[in-house]
Amino acid sequence: MLMARPGGENAQKDDVPWWMRYAGRGLGTVGSFIAIILGLINCLSIVVFNVACLIAGIWQMLAGFIVIVCEAPCCCFFIDYVQTISDKMETRPYWNKAVLYVCLALPPFFLCFLSMSTWFGSGMIFGTGIIYGMMALGRKASAEEMRTSAANLEAGMAQTSAPRANLVANEQPVSFTGVPTRH
After folding, report:
1. Cβ of 69: how many Cβ atoms within 10 Å?
2. What's the pLDDT band for 173 if we cut at 50, 70, 90?
3. pLDDT tens digits, residue range 54-104?
4. What sections of the protein cross the membrane (predicted)?
5. Which residue in 30, 56, 120, 140 is a FRET match for 111, CA 20 to 30 A apart?
């Protein structure tokens, strides 16, 4: 309970391992601080008239700020709306955070590809998005469940020629009708 987030629910809503939650939050917090600092260093490239790296540095600092608002609102307690934004992000599914963080991290790579500060700073935000993406996928099945599923699939394959769809109940076989003709 000491590590519980203020205003957050203490009940676990899903079966994501505790270490993965802390890894996502920790990498997001530390990575966003580093992204802000390295974005500032990236902005110093204006000295050599590299405007693309300047824009990438500004983007990286803004991305770091957004991630820190979502992951560690206690670091920005002096801004009024930070806690409400953080609470809204906590109610969203993990895949929403993953998409947000990956989309925030990609533009600096395209703008200033050769800068190590871009690779490291935005790379940490990208890594946070990857961790949240893995959390969205959920736990892997146990070895016994996978063996049972494989055995059932093998037994089912011997009886029918088409595999069964688990995601779509009204699966139709794929067929090619030919090239459309003009009338």
Report:
1. 19
2. low
3. 999 999 999 999 999 999 999 988 888 899 999 999 999 999 999 999 999
4. 30-52, 58-82, 94-111
5. 30
Domain membership flag for residue 179: no
Q: What is the pLDDT of residue 3?
A: 45
Residue 123 and residue 105 in contact, taking contact as beta carbons nearer than 8 Å: yes
Residues 9 and 24: their CA atoms lie apart, in Å, by: 18
Q: Residues 97, 129: contact at Cβ < 8 Å?
A: yes
Maximal CA-CA distance, the chain: 74
Please report where in the chains the tokens 């016994």 appear, as a residue: 144
Domain boundaries, position 42:
23-137
Looking at the domain assignment, is residue 55 inside a domain? yes
What H or E segment, with its residue span, contains residue 102?
helix 94-111
- How many domains does the chain contain in total? 1
pLDDT of residue 167: 55
Residue 17: pLDDT band with limits 50, 70, 90: confident
CB hemisphere CA count around 160 (13 angstroms): 7
DSSP labels, 20-83: HHHHHHHHHHHHHHHHHHHHHHHHGGGGGT-HHHHHHHHHHHHHHHHHHHHH-GGGGTTSTTHH
Q: Which residue has the higher pLDDT, 6 or 101?
A: 101
Nearest residue to 108 via CA among 14, 23, 42: 42
